[in-house]
Amino acid sequence: MSGEYFRLLWRRAERFLVRALRDYEEGDYDGACFNAEEAIQLVTKALLYKYFGEVPRIHGSKALLARLRDLFMDAGKEGVASVVGRLVADYRDALDILEESYVMARYGALSYGEKQGRLCVDTAKKVFEVLNEVEEGLG
Question: Which of 13, 40, 48, 63 has its CA 20 to 30 A from that of 101?
């Protein structure tokens, strides 16, 4: 089941990233940010499941990425933990916007503009790039 569930989560994450890109191109920046955050959550959960058997119920890209970093550190994979930690540190502000958008893009009075939409999509693409490299390195 491990490989199947991992692939299912990864494919879902990819589809949310595609939706985020499409929403951005169509000028739906709220949708772009929401879908980018969902993509990050799912791709991170895929790795948490594959390598640690965890199915976390938390929603928030920073918390999930921090959990992934901590588990890699505990497992003696300091290099991988450092890569994930650097990702969170370098994109902290963008991850804050993404986490906020998970609720605000649907229910809040706040609406995201083109600049935020681009930041959300670019950050999700970077997270995918880094986590894909982690996956290939551990694979």
Answer: 48
pLDDT tops 90 at residue 11 = yes
Distance of CA 99 to the CA centre of its chain: 10
Residue with tokens 């999930």: 64
CB distance 48 to 31 below 8 Å? no
| Size of the chain in residues | 139
* Phi, psi (deg, nearest 5) at residue 55: -125, 80
Q: Which helix (H) or strand (E) segment is 120 a member of?
A: helix 114-138
44 and 87 in contact (C-beta within 8 Å)? Answer: no
pTM (2 d.p.): 0.94
Residue 53 Ramachandran class (φ > 0 left, ψ -120 to 50 alpha, else beta): left
Other beta carbons within 10 angstroms of residue 88's beta carbon come to 18
